[in-house]
Amino acid sequence: MSSSLFIKICGLKTDRDVDTAVEAGADAIGFVFSASPRRIDAATAARLCARVPENVLTVGVFRDEPLRDVRSLATDSGIRAVQLHGPEDRGYYDGLATGGWTLIRAAAFGEPAPRHGDMGEDILLLDALVPGSGIAWDWSTKPLAAPGEKWLLAGGLTPDNVRTAVAAASPWGVDVSSGVEQTRGVKDPALITAFVRAARDRS
Ligand SMILES: O=C(O)c1ccccc1N[C@@H]1O[C@H](COP(=O)(O)O)[C@@H](O)[C@H]1O
């Protein structure tokens, strides 16, 4: 993984999506296993994971799925991180802790502000109210997290606004899905490359 801003590209479904994100320099790529136009099955994710080098984190995205389904999809696909978007409680997180997956807790930003580590997660993800909707929220609201904490900014990011968002919120990393698509659920290679460049300020 890069020591600079951590970049995750989410909702990938094809070999071309994965190859583009890896070549662009993404630190993590996400596969959606819950209801979504981006949903893929474990066998597809396993095939895509096999294309990904060790230094890129593969993430499975779940929303309010039974714990046993998360465990089996994560095991069967070979992903290395689990991202949870539902109202999962501490017991649910503890039920995944022994699996060796990096745990990412997604929370909608609101009051009270979600705090890093409350569920024992490794990374906190602050998102809009509706995940995967491409809708942004007020990133300039501060403080979002304590300095040095691993937290990802997500929700409505695009190649055009990611620099502004990073400057406003100072996240550890960023996560994007809709903003790098040509139509809903279909990634655009040029936008993936442009996003990574812009996020690292190399446009
Ligand atoms: O992308 C989805 O369809 C999705 C479905 C269920 C849970 C999370 C989902 N995506 C997450 O949403 C943000 C990105 O949102 P945006 O489209 O860039 O606004 C990211 O965390 C995805 O992992």
TrEMBL record:
Belongs to the TrpF family. Gene3D superfamilies: Aldolase class I. Pfam families: PRAI. One of its GO terms (molecular function) is isomerase activity. Keywords: Amino-acid biosynthesis, Aromatic amino acid biosynthesis, Isomerase, Tryptophan biosynthesis. It catalyses: N-(5-phospho-beta-D-ribosyl)anthranilate = 1-(2-carboxyphenylamino)-1-deoxy-D-ribulose 5-phosphate. Pathway: Amino-acid biosynthesis; L-tryptophan biosynthesis; L-tryptophan from chorismate: step 3/5. Signal peptide: none annotated. It comes from the Bacteria. Its EC number is 5.3.1.24. This is N-(5'-phosphoribosyl)anthranilate isomerase. Residues 7-197 form the N-(5'phosphoribosyl) anthranilate isomerase (PRAI) domain.
